[in-house]
Write a structure and sequence with these properties.
There is one protein chain. The protein has about 270 residues and is mainly α. It folds into two domains: about 1-115; about 115-273, no CATH class. The protein has helices at about 1-25, 30-55, 65-85, 90-110, 125-155, 165, 170-205, 210-235, 240-260. Helix 1 runs antiparallel to helix 4 (about 90-110), helix 2 (about 30-55) packs antiparallel against helix 3 (about 65-85) and helix 3 packs antiparallel against helix 4 (about 90-110). The two termini are about 25 Å apart.
């Protein structure tokens, strides 16, 4: 398991180097190198998850080590698909180092299996977990695109057509790509929360228990729902949408990390859900 994680980190770091080389030198072959190295890292990441599944007999998200491995996998996998669709090469500068950092942290935390109570491994749990992580990965991309939008907008308004102006996509493309990420992420999060309610009923006998993770997951859902509503009803685009995507990412990070470490509840057993 450890050797697979080491290879995953290696490929993600090499992908990071490739994308940063592309950022500065603007050679298309460097983008392709970064992309294929990221795919190699993703395949190793997948192998680590599959190994955990075979070893423990459940989808590996029952401690922080396992959860972070799945986070890295989700971010890389979603970007690989996203890159194929939108060809936003520059986004690899954000995704590759992020995936590498996540996996480095995963390698440093304890891999001892947590003591799990009242857990039923079934379709609802698996679908809940996968949907949530994929949705969160899309929100992470949306946050990165929002930040890039603000940088490019500032560059244009300042009339300094320098380093970033030549390398970042148009504002329209960044806005459209960010909106797509939020729509897909919101859809997956909704599915994940719905299946989570069904699973909670099966395990704890009730759909809703006011667990801190449930509450903050609902807050996250409401925030992105408000963003989508305002975009459709009030025409929120561009700067407002970018800022909200970044705010949403901050809330998402608190829901993922802050709730687990600062608040208590039955989701604390998983560290992730």
């Amino acid at each position: 398991m450890e050797i697979v994680i080491i290879f995953t980190i290696f490929f993600y770091l090499m992908s990071t180097a490739g994308y940063f080389a592309y950022l500065f030198l603007q050679k298309n072959y460097l983008n392709r190198v970064g992309y294929f190295l990221l795919i190699a890292g993703f395949l190793c990441n997948s192998a680590a998850i599959f190994y955990g599944f075979l070893k423990f007999g459940h989808i590996p998200v029952h401690n922080l080590h396992e959860t972070l491995i799945l986070v890295g996998w989700s971010i890389a996998g979603v970007f690989i698909i996203f890159q194929y669709k939108f060809n936003l090469r520059i986004l690899g500068v954000y995704v590759a180092p992020l995936a590498a950092i996540v996996m480095v942290f995963a390698s440093q935390v304890s891999s001892e299996p947590a003591q799990i109570k009242n857990i039923v491994n079934n379709f609802w749990l698996v679908f809940h977990i996968i949907s949530i992580f994929i949705g969160e990965a899309f929100f992470i991309l949306a946050g990165g695109l929002g930040f890039m939008y603000l940088v490019q907008e500032h560059t244009i308004k300042a009339k300094k057509h320098g380093f970033f102006f030549r390398r970042l996509p148009s504002l329209e493309l960044l806005d459209t790509a960010g909106y797509t990420c939020i729509v897909v992420g919101f859809t997956m999060l909704t599915i994940g929360l719905a299946t989570g309610l069904v699973y909670a009923k099966m395990v704890w006998g009730k759909f809703w228990g006011w667990d801190p993770k449930e509450v903050w997951s609902c807050i996250t859902w409401l925030l992105y729902a408000a963003l989508l509503h305002e975009r459709l009803a009030a025409g929120w685009r561009g700067r407002k949408a970018a800022i909200m995507a970044i705010v949403g990412l901050a809330v998402l990070l608190f829901t993922f990390f802050g709730v687990n470490f600062l608040l208590k509840g039955h989701h604390g057993e998983f560290t992730s859900l």
